[in-house]
Amino acid sequence: MTAATPMDVLLSRASTDRLVAPAPSAAQLEQILAAGLRAPDHGRLRPWRYVVVEGDARPLFAQKVVDSMLRLDPQTPEFNLTKRRTRFATMPMTIALGMHLRPDHKIPLWEQEMTVAAGAMNVLNALHTLGFGGIWVSGPITQDPVLAAELGFAAPHRLAGFIFAGTPDGTPHPAPARPDPQAFSANWQGAPVTFAADKD
Q1: Of 10, 64, 73, 112, which has the most beta carbons under 10 Å away?
Q2: Can you tell me the distance from the alpha carbon of 127 to that of 137, in angstroms, rounded to the nearest whole number?
Q3: Bridge-partner residues for 95, per DSSP?
Q4: Would you say 98 and 152 are in contact if contact means Cβ atoms under 8 Å apart?
Q5: Cα–Cα distance for residue pair 88/106, rounded to 1 Å
């Protein structure tokens, strides 16, 4: 049997929230986050920040998430609160994605934010490479400055979302179909291009 190549591994990654213990060990997590820090970083501002929530801290953080939801919308249905509380309290590991932003720097904010996003993708790829699963989640709570500050990201710093990490639970489910790269690419020859993906 032929061993999987690095490209095979990259092309087989898919997000999943069907996660169980174990989460990455401390040594594995160090490798995973080191991969995040290899993302492109214009100006070498190093805006990545990772806050790891695991073990007994999970239900405490889950309550902070629920408090944030109610702060943003006091009419949030109880079903939604319970669902979100359970999710954050039971995921094997949550990695909060912080953006340590420098609004007055010559590097525009959008580039600093894209550096954080590129780092998050590296983290997801590293999780997959080591046999773990993960998914990047966001939602309105990422815009809550109070929740961000409770994690250590007081303004002007912000949250970019959360990565849930753990071991895929083995539940069989069909791999998601991936788009044809040719539908999303084109060769430029002097005039604006069109994409097959835009012809729906």
Answers
A1: 112
A2: 15
A3: 52, 163
A4: yes
A5: 37
In this model, does residue 154 exceed pLDDT 90?
yes
The 10s digit of each residue's pLDDT in 83-110 is 999 999 999 999 999 999 999 999 999 9
Q: What is the longest distance spanned by two Cα atoms in the chain?
A: 58
Peptide bond into 6 cis (omega under 30): no
**Hey, is 122 helix, strand or coil?**
helix
Domains and CATH numbers, the chain: 18-170 (3.40.109.10)
Is the predicted pLDDT of residue 175 greater than 90, yes or no? no
160 C-beta neighbours (distance < 10 Å), count: 22
pTM over 0.85: yes
Q: What pLDDT does residue 141 have? A: 98
Q: Which residue has the tokens 């997959």?
A: 128
Identity of the residue numbered 35: A
